[in-house]
Amino acid sequence: MKKVKVLIEMGRDGLFAAYMDDTHLSYSCLGTGKTVKETIEDFKKGYEAMKKYYQESGKEFEEVEFSFYYANTVTFLHALKDLFKLEGISKVTGVNAAQLGHYIQGVKKPSASTEKKIQEGVLRSLSEMQDIKFR
User: Is pLDDT at 133 greater than 70 in this prediction?
Assistant: First the structure.
């Protein structure tokens, strides 16, 4: 089954959107929401609705699997800030909390090396947490 990349991005209105990257499929899907989770759920509902429409219309529908990606670091930081304080994100990434705030507000854009530092720091921290089990 073909894998399709779905990008998640935060709009200026503060809502998240999920959309299919260029796929060469005969259809496309979109999802929106106030949180990343809500957005992915809405996207999947849209996919199922599209599938149903194709079946009802007698059209061939190519089923695909999805891989979800943050479209940019700002969207990633917005999703994180709903879970963690900027000071905590700063501790695991080594990027100043005020600077992270500037990225989230759109005042500044992180460099490619800073984006990498943020992503690696957060993923490393989550990986370390995942290795510890509860009794």
Answer: no
* Structure tokens belonging to residue 84: 């963690």
Distance of CA 83 to the CA centre of its chain: 14
Segment 92-104 mean pLDDT: 92
Question: Do 64 and 15 reside in the same domain of the chain?
Answer: yes
DSSP secondary structure string, 72-98? Answer: SHHHHHHHHHTTS-HHHHHHHH-S-HH
Assess if residue 52 is contained within a domain.
yes
- Angle, alpha carbons 32-36-38 (nearest 5°): 60
pLDDT of 30-63, one tens digit each? 999 998 999 999 999 999 999 999 999 999 999 9
Residue 20 sits in the same domain as residue 63: yes
* Full-model pTM: 0.78
Helix then strand then coil, % of the chain, to nearest 5: 50, 20, 35
30 in a structural domain = yes
Do residues 62 and 79 both lie within one domain? no
Last residue of a domain, one of 70, 87, 106: 70
**pLDDT over threshold 70, residue 66:** yes
Is 135 inside any structural domain?
Answer: no
